[in-house]
Automatic annotation (TrEMBL):
The active site is at 319 (proton acceptor), 320 (proton acceptor). The gene is hisD. This is Histidinol dehydrogenase. The lineage of its organism: Bacteria, Bacillati, Bacillota, Bacilli, Bacillales. Substrate binds at residues 229, 251, 254, 320, 353, 407, 412. Its EC number is 1.1.1.23. The keyword Transport does not apply.
Length: 422
């Protein structure tokens, strides 16, 4: 793992994978086919890409019951406790509708309304992601969304992973479809005979899913186009090398383009972590992926002091930030840009990924400079409320009309003045 001085140019940014021209054309064709032919097109693409011919896309109650029989009781209890933690955390994000009044009769406010419907995409393939179900569904439930639809690509047996179905049931999802890829995004955006369209689509996926979300944005809302995972660790001489190395590798195993960075004031720690990373890599099941990630996007930066180290972290604006220092809490106020902040050696990143409660859908690729984690407000919309009394309008009519004429909009001015013409 390369060791550099902070004075060297650094960046956590990677080029955003916008797909090839061939992939973009293919996605557009899939979306158009689904818009025109509905279920028939979805079935054909599912057969082609997932090699499964389904009589019905909808997951049955029998399949959910079977899932509970296939998942051990301890794992079910862990999913249930994680769901409770996530639900509780997001409940604290709720904001009420508010209204203020003034003596002249003016009434102003903001009405908070949940979206009517949301589609949640859960990746499939060789892995199962029950955590993705909980993190995307539960904020929508807390927000008050009435209809939540989940889609996920089927395995070669025509079913979804049992743990995913258990998580969906525990989160309260009532519509689950065995559909993945760009065809699933198109179905959610425009509807088919079986799958009614939704107002917003959230959840991660492969490049075809990402391209499809970009393509349908505007007809529906989307959450974000997330990049590969990343972690930055801010550490001093008190950090333990084997723990820091393990945390760096926890993100490197995600993806060959994942980014793992250590920023430290200790040259001794830097060298020991570099050695420990190589040692632990040899024992990882996903060694090939993690090794490529560390080689291409991993780095250790040595800062002259903590102020320089913190400045470096703020430049990186990482998705995940661990602070492992003698007193991490005192540094929180100096951190300006990070998706999620983990404090101390007993708060490793997987605590947030799975269990603590804060959302693990986070801004990547430096976008923590202006973006936030997925939250309850992502599933709500706001309407402004304006009520002026006759007195209030009379007091301000001349000013409003003047402002309208300042912009050359005479009809706007006359709209106000019409209220006072005899």
């Amino acid at each position: 793992m390369k060791i550099l001085r902070v004075s060297d140019a650094i960046s956590i940014k990677r080029s955003v994978d916008s797909g090839t021209e061939e992939q973009r054309i293919a996605v557009k064709k899939i979306i158009e086919e689904v818009r025109v032919r509905g279920d028939e097109a979805v079935r054909e693409f599912t057969d082609k890409f997932d090699r499964v011919n389904l009589a019905s896309f909808l997951v049955s109650e029998e399949e959910i019951k079977e899932a509970y029989e296939l998942v051990d009781s301890y794992s079910i209890s862990v999913i249930q406790e994680a769901a409770a933690n996530i639900h509780s955390f997001h409940e604290k994000q709720l904001r009420p509708t508010w209204i203020t009044t003034e003596e002249n009769g003016t009434m102003l406010g903001q009405k908070i309304t949940p979206l009517d419907s949301v589609g949640v995409y859960v990746p499939g393939g060789l892995a199962a992601y029950p955590s993705s179900v909980l993190m995307n569904v539960l904020p929508a439930k807390v927000a008050g969304v009435e209809r939540i639809v989940m889609v996920s690509p089927p395995s070669d047996n025509g079913k979804l992973p049992p743990a995913v179905l258990v998580a969906a049931k525990e989160a309260g999802v009532k519509e689950i479809y065995k559909v993945g890829g760009a065809q699933a995004i198109a179905a959610l955006a425009y509807g088919t005979e079986t799958i009614s369209n939704v107002d917003k689509i959230v959840g991660p996926g492969n490049i075809y899913v990402a391209l499809a979300k970009r393509e349908v944005f505007g007809d529906v809302d989307i959450d974000m186009i997330a990049g590969p995972s990343e972690i930055a660790i801010l550490a001093d001489e008190t950090a333990r090398p084997h723990e820091v190395a393990a945390d760096l590798l926890s993100q490197a195993e995600h993806d060959e383009r994942a980014c793992s960075v250590l920023v430290t004031t200790s040259e001794k720690l830097a060298n020991e972590v570099a050695e420990e990373v190589l040692k632990q890599l040899e024992e990882l099941p996903r060694k090939d992926i993690a090794s490529k990630s560390i080689e291409d996007y991993g780095a250790i930066y040595i800062a002259n002091d903590m102020e320089e180290a913190i400045s470096t972290i703020n430049q990186l604006a990482p998705e995940h930030l661990e602070i492992i220092t003698v007193n991490p809490i005192e540094l929180i106020g100096k951190i300006k840009h990070a998706g999620a902040i983990f404090l101390g050696r007993f708060s490793p990143e997987p605590v947030g990924d799975y269990f603590a409660g804060p959302n693990h859908v986070l801004p990547t690729n430096g976008t923590a400079r202006f973006s936030s984690p997925l939250n309850v407000e992502d599933f709500q919309k706001k309407s402004s409320i304006i009520l002026y009394s006759e007195q209030a309008l009379n007091e301000n009519a001349e000013k409003i009309a003047a402002f309208a004429r300042l912009e050359g909009l005479e009809a706007h001015a006359r709209s106000v003045e019409a209220r006072f013409k005899k």
